[in-house]
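User: Hi! I'm working on a homework problem where we have to compare a predicted structure to a textbook description. Could you give me the structure for the chain below?
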Amino acid sequence: MHQLLQLRSMVQSASGHPCTIETFLGGGGQGEVYRAMLDGKPIALKWYFPEQATPTQRQNLETLIGKGPPNTQFLWPVELATAADTTGFGYLMPLREPRYKSIVDLMKRRIEPSFRTLATAGLQLAQAFLELHAKGLCYRDISFGNVFFDPDTGDIQVCDNDNVSIDGQGNSGVLGTPRFIAPEVVRGEAVPSTETDLFSLSVLLFYLFHIHHPLEGQREAAIKCFDLPAMTQLYGTDPLFIFDPADTTNQPVPGVHDNALAYWPLYPQSLRDLFIKAFTIGLHDPHQRVRESQWRGAMMQLRDAMLYCGHCGEENCYDGDALRISGGQPGLCWSCQKPLILPFRLRLERQVVMLNHDTQLFPHHLDRQRCYDLSQPWAAMQRHPQNPNVWGLKNQSPAKWVMTAPDGTIRDVEPGRSVSVAVGVKVNFGSVEGEIRG
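Assistant: Happy to help. Predicted structure tokens:
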């Protein structure tokens, strides 16, 4: 129950505008969050408990407000707020949209996003923290409670940004959330930094794709009393990845850790290799952790690797390395256990994109100068209006393409026109060239 501010009461923004408290949204260890109205527009207000409303916290907020958000996905402090009849202070920030759900909802299976949605959320998480770290900032507390995503699109929002600090200068006392804290911080050997953020980000991504913690295997199952010494050992002094290829003594236990066992083999080896690096070498050497840019590339590759089972319609992941090892056989669908049939594929230099019925290409794919730009589709798969068995790749970009047919015929593909999807067709998109393969 709220206790710091009364509903319908007023607080004052730093710019002098009155702000009306409307609804209590929730509380945490530092304070309470309310929905409020400022100049006729809804906004969120966080108000600190008296013991948390310190001069240091206020100075940190002023620094963050002055720097501004790394991007619009951060629900960043906008203004300080005070009240004439209440001690302490708070701050105003953008209000989280209702479409964004907690990752806890995913853990409890209250939402069932697609693999493509998860890959998009992972991509945006990596990009968001890359931009935050590029500004010389450290988040300090990457965890379930601070990240929300749209289960339909994968769009993310990052909240609770008031503990963000300049890397190496943090003095808020916030060490992070248990299970997400880097081992060296658990052991008391380090304080939060961009390097410890990288560990927390890896844990969050592992949770996102496996609905399980990367260090909780046989050792966790054997613990009788999950107290502070047990947690310190499991996450700090003696951590071991559940899929460590060199040490199998902490493998997942069937019947206890079934999520990890079920999801791990579904992903391409390239993604699994990144998780192995994050929780083997990166577990013990902070300088060798997987960078945000590496996760970003892996998530983009995963988005492009999705294909649908022709029997049950479930998403599966194309794994080019496994395909070469198996002699070109794509294997079985994880859901119905029937043979997968590969769709047409578009090879764009080092990228391979599955051409499913709903595939879209973006500036990221077709313009070398706009990597990771997914702002608008520049191409989309489209069924022929007279022959439903024929598919084309429609040009939705502002530029003309040049297509070369397998027989050597060359023709222009103006915006609004389509390229027939057939083996051997080559398309010059301007900045890159692609070839359709079967």
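For your comparison, note the following. The CA atoms of residues 121 and 217 lie 26 Å apart. DSSP finds 13 helices and 23 strands in the chain. Good luck with the assignment!
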